[in-house]
User: What shape does this take?
Amino acid sequence: MSKIEILKGNIIHAPVFGALEVLADGYIVLKDGVIEGLFRELPEEFSAGDVTDYADKLIVPSFSDMHLHAPQYPQLGMGLDLQLLEWLQKYTFVTEARFSDTEYAKRVYSKLAGNLVMNGTTRVSAYSSLHREATLVLMDELEKSGITGYVGKVNMDRNSPDNLRETTEESLRETRIWIEESLKRFKNIKPIITPRFTPSCSNKLMEGLGKLAAEYGLPVQSHLSENVDEVNWVKELHPDCEEYWQTYDKYGLFGSRTLMGHCVYSSKTERAAMKRNGVWVVHNPDSNINIASGVASVRIMLNEGLNVVLGSDIAGGASLSMMRIITGAIKTSKRNWLLTDKKEPFLTVAEAFYLATSAGARYFGVGPGFAKGDKLHALVLDDSAFPETLHSDPAQRLERILYMGDDRQIKERYSEGVRLQAEECGCKSAL
Ligand SMILES: [Zn+2]
Assistant: This one.
């Protein structure tokens, strides 16, 4: 017999882009963890269900972080006076090379998984390093903590230090073994094909990865037009391609399940190619400012009908908190608004909240918002520690939490229809 669970509280979600739906003192009814419906009054048929009353607290969808580099977690907040290519050489590659040590990987990744849950992120698309064993450790730690989504073993066979470079054959062989192993071992964390970026991957490797993606029906993630020097470098490496996106497209790595990080310098034609192919743009506002890459014109991409989601891009980004990324996306869009003589409208709270919740969920084939038939992914937010305010509307309270709050305002987390236990997910030891 199925189990009926009912959550009561101030429900806020973003079922459409640009508008929040609020059910003050509403009910979410779950049947075996799956959303049966949202109600202002509890229907009679569910009156015997088990009610968890969150009283005045807010119940919102949990966050999706669609671009983060797990092995860069130890360098969070460091080296940010450098720009991308120098930053990769001096900080990132040195840090990532340490993940040949699986014990080290275990220590770092258990902490990372706990900290993601603490911050209310229950869906991810994450980069690992090129190490197969450490990648499996990362998948294991995420799955144990209750997080769902994708993890990619990174591929790199050129333009990187000796201790962080595979031969082409080795890279493809290791990737196949990793795919097979991870498909067998994990339920909620799946493999995603992950060429680091064009400068790190030879044509032969790209070609092999395109074939693996097709053979196993896997999604793809990589970087696109993040930084001016990077874009120029790609032009030198691929004189046959007019634009960066073509270096992925010609190997079948630029389709409707592809996540492309950044797209700061994507031209009109590059954006049109993304739209045509159904590629998803991952906007990483914190990272783009920290390593001074530039500011993506999210409003233009949205107006052109592109799929846009948000990412922390740690450790270019310096925080795992998607609250910081949501407000970061708003702030950088306000910079664009000012610099375009107020012609390019900035993102509203409702819009940015949608990108961090509903848009990410849509990439995984669910949502938007608390959609009937989806397993519950939710957070219970408590703003009682904030000063009393006359503005008691739940949507205004959510805005204040997004700007002022952190993990201390997150009282409960639900993932895949289950309430995560702090002890089990490692939350308590996360910091
Ligand atoms: Zn990245």
